[in-house]
């Protein structure tokens, strides 16, 4: 018999993709300096190309950055980048222009922790087997949640969305880990610190069964927006038995029939410059080929 594989490692449950994290920003110029020049990501060349919003491609996921005040995610966004040394050089190069902001970064042994100009925390990892074939992407978003919330949050996603969700320990604290795509997770880690006030930031996910979760949310009075035939939204994560609110986070739920599902995203190679241009190296792949 040939090589044996862990077939369960390739399973994807009802939530099939985490596409974007939406964070409003007050200044598109600083957002460009940070996300495009410093982080090395790619502004979507086809959609939302004006001066009041920016979609930033990171592999097959995005940041959406509307100009409308400041939003700060209560936790951090986990990212994979192919070259952390190059990232550190780019961040150092923009440090001066971002000096009057909250921008900061710290290089550690296997990651770089970055703070955006408005206080959002990004944790940047090198490609690693824990992230599968991803060399550029958004493998997780981690949220700080109140003590005692993790188990109920795991049950909420498992029962309402039929997601693969587990209650486990993360960095020494109880947490819920929810699969939201291939090698993509939401992590809700309990903390004793009082949570910051929710400011309206949101995430967007695609689901295979679109109507089932909608019905379960509607029965509980949780649907907050009937956007269109392909999309709806909700805000409160609740205990599926008692109905008690556990955490507040707006979710933009899209069907796989949504016109944007599976849209190819352009990712540039930030090492390409006009001074060191090499023909045929403009693109940055988001994954490697697995065996």
Keywords:
291 residues, alpha+beta, eight-stranded mixed sheet, 16 strands, globular
What would you note in describing this structure?
The chain has 291 residues and is an alpha+beta fold. It is built from four helices and 16 strands. The protein has helices at 28-38, 84-94, 150-160, 211-219, and strands at 15-22, 42-43, 55-58, 61-64, 75-80, 104-107, 111-115, 121-125, 137-146, 165-170, 173-179, 185-191, 202-207, 223-228, 231-238, 245-255. The strands form two sheets. The chain has an eight-stranded mixed beta sheet with strand order 2-3-4-1-13-16-15-14, covered by helices on one side. An eight-stranded mixed beta sheet has the order 6-7-8-5-9-12-11-10, covered by helices on one side. Strand 15 and strand 16 form a beta hairpin. The longest helix is centred in the first third of the chain and has 11 residues, at 28-38. The model has no long low-confidence stretch (mean pLDDT 95).
How are the SSEs placed, and which strands pair?
Blueprint: E1 15-22, H1 28-38, E2 42-43, E3 55-58, E4 61-64, E5 75-80, H2 84-94, E6 104-107, E7 111-115, E8 121-125, E9 137-146, H3 150-160, E10 165-170, E11 173-179, E12 185-191, E13 202-207, H4 211-219, E14 223-228, E15 231-238, E16 245-255
Parallel strand pairs: 1-4, 5-8, 9-12, 13-16
Antiparallel strand pairs: 1-13, 2-3, 3-4, 5-9, 6-7, 7-8, 10-11, 11-12, 14-15, 15-16
Helix pairs in contact: 1-2
């Amino acid at each position: 018999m040939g090589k044996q594989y862990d077939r369960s490692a390739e399973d994807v449950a009802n939530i099939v993709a985490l596409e974007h994290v939406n964070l409003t920003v007050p200044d598109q110029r600083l957002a460009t300096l940070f996300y495009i020049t410093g982080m090395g990501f790619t502004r979507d060349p086809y959609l939302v190309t004006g001066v009041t919003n920016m979609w930033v491609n990171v592999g097959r996921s995005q940041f959406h950055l509307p100009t409308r005040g400041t939003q700060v995610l209560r936790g951090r966004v986990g990212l994979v980048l192919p070259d952390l040394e190059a990232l550190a050089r780019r961040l150092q190069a923009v440090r001066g222009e971002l000096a009057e902001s909250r921008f900061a970064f710290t290089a550690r042994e296997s990651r770089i922790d970055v703070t955006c100009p408005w206080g959002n925390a990004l944790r940047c990892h090198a490609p690693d087997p824990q992230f599968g074939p991803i060399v550029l992407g958004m493998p997780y978003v981690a949220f700080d949640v109140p003590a005692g919330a993790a188990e109920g949050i795991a049950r909420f996603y498992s029962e309402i969305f039929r997601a693969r969700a587990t209650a486990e320990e993360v960095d020494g604290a109880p947490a819920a880990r929810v699969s939201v795509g291939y090698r993509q997770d939401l992590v809700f880690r309990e903390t004793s610190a009082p949570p910051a006030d929710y400011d309206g930031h949101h995430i967007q996910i695609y689901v295979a069964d679109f109507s089932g979760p909608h019905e379960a949310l509607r029965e509980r009075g949780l649907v907050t927006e009937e956007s269109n035939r392909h999309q709806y939204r909700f805000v409160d994560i609740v205990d599926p038995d008692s109905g008690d609110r556990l955490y507040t986070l707006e979710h933009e739920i899209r069907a796989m029939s949504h016109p944007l599902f599976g849209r190819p995203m352009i990712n540039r190679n930030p090492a390409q410059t006009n001074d060191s241009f090499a023909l045929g190296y403009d693109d940055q792949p988001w994954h490697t080929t697995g065996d």
